[in-house]
Write a structure and sequence with these properties.
With 162 residues, the protein is an all-alpha fold. The chain has one domain: Malate Synthase G, Chain: A, Domain 4, CATH 1.20.1220. The chain is 72% helix and 0% strand. The protein contains seven helices and no strands. It is elongated and about 65 Å long. It starts with a helix and ends in a 13-residue tail after the last helix.
Amino acid sequence: MAEADLYEDDFIAWTEQQAKALRAAAGQPSNLGLDWEHLAEEIEDLGKSYRRAVASEVARIVEHLLKLQFSPAKDPRRGWIETVTHARSEIDTWLSAEPALRPRMPSIIETGRARGLKSALSLLRAYDEEGAAADAKRHGGSYSNDQILGDWFPDARAVPPG
């Protein structure tokens, strides 16, 4: 695939390819005075930033799904639902702008899932919801990818698994 096509079709792969090319160029004699290694790192980080942004939204979704499912708190529920809805919309925007993220979503979701679980546990404990934190920890944020990315919400009346 030509570089211009790769740039348009899979920006993340393009950043990886360009970083590799910059590192290879660093080993060749040159009088350009370029900081090849740092240029390569910066280009590579552009692609990684896409994955980090989506993983951050996944973490927000998992955190709030866990709180919706396990917290006995009533007042913040609407805000949690709105946060999940907004985060899902942000992910849709990222995936529309960069469709090449789709095949990378399983690993991105796993990264976000772990961060979301950690955050939910911390916040539940901060509000003295130890029982909810214990239930959420046992659950582990083990929502399916469809539950995380789709329209699913936990049934507040359901008995938490345990």
